[in-house]
Amino acid sequence: MAYRYLGNSGLKVSEITYGNWLTHGSQVENDVATQCVRAALDAGITTFDTADVYANGAAETVLGAALAGEPRESLEIFTKVYFPVGRKGPNDTGLSRKHIFEGIDNSLDRLGMDYVDLYQAHRYDVETPLEETISAFGDVVRQGKALYIGVSEWTADQLRRGQELARADGFSLVSNQPQYSALWRVIESDVVPASKELGISQVVWSPIAQGVLTGKYQPGQPVPEGSRATDTKGGDNMIKRYLNDETLTRVQKLKPIADDLSITMAQLAVAWVLANDNVAAALVGASRPEQIAENVKAAEVTLTPDVLAAIDEALDGSIERDPAKTVSPETRIV
Q1: Which of 84, 109, 151, 196 is deepest in the core (most CB within 10 A)?
Q2: What is the CA radius of gyration of the chain?
Q3: What would you give as a GO molecular function for this chain, any one (predicted)?
Q4: What angle do CA 228, 180, 319 make, to 5 degrees?
Q5: Which residue has the higher pLDDT, 222 or 96?
Q6: What is d(CA 17, CA 271) in angstroms, rounded to the nearest whole number?
């Protein structure tokens, strides 16, 4: 496993990071989830990403139990706060001081840990003054409950203002967690340049576009049983934008590119996001332990300019680049 620095910090993270959105406490049984975590550790993954909203806290509980007994100093644990959790009352959401303070304590309790390495704003909260949010995150760091602070799906302007306030408060934002793949490139024109300017890395989710870039979804064919596209708990809604014959036909053009490199299409997709030098880590999930070993091999792959150009040509016409697709909720999600 290779490691990269997280933003302009001294923290190194495994460039393949294990994420448990839509799996732990939801799609897979707890014993299988534990097997997946053990497989990740065996593959050299030391960085694990979760969130309080995943399965309404159950994902954090399952991850903490699966990691119990591992030396804490050998792990990098990420979690997030923003979305409605718990009883989902009026203050059980957003980035208010109240919710951040209660959120970190509840997350640590579920994880069975004294601190997390990275605490992330899961979205931008348009209803809480940013000064309040940043001040609360700074206090979480000073209390030793989180070592670093990051965000998720923030725009370039939000990153700039947040970093300005954070530095004035004595800490820095070190990461942003956006969706990013060979099909979804909306961060490239604005967010990535701003992040490089500010010392912020990307920890990207959905590098294989919810499974579309594995090639398992075939044009003109029904979706496979048990796939993300059949998951009514959230997966089917995320993937439907790609399930058209035009996009699926273009994705199939990636297979000969992967074959020439003697890698799978999934490995090609993960290697593609890691080719961006502002990406610190690619988040991969798993519903079966063997998926971990396959995805980790992407860390060994270096894509040449010619290969990157061939990928662009294959997918041309189905690539989303509009920076406006990185948007904040217009009101706080309740």
Answers
A1: 151
A2: 19
A3: oxidoreductase activity
A4: 90
A5: 96
A6: 13
Two tokens, residue 239: 């993937």
Both tokens of residue 220? 């003109």
Tens digit of each residue's pLDDT (9 = 90 or more) over 98-129: 999 999 999 999 999 999 999 999 999 999 99
Residue 189: C-alpha distances to residues 74, 156, 242, 309, 325 (Å) = 35, 10, 22, 18, 12
- Report the distance separating Cα 326 and Cα 187, nearest Å: 7
- Per DSSP bridges, beta strands 116-121 and 146-151 are parallel
Distance between CA 211 and CA 219 in Å, rounded?
Answer: 14
Q: Does 115 participate in catalysis according to the annotation?
A: no
CB 298 within 8 A of CB 265: no
> pTM here?
0.94
Residue 329's nearest CA partner among 162, 187, 94, 124 is 124
Query: At which residue do the structure tokens 């519903």 appear?
Result: 287
Tokens 């509980």 — which residue?
Answer: 61
Task: Check 3, 5, 18, 54 and give the catalytic one.
Answer: 54
pLDDT in tens, 74-97: 999 999 999 999 999 999 999 999
Q: What are phi and psi of 5, to 5 degrees?
A: -70, 145
What is the CB neighbour count within 10 angstroms for residue 226?
10
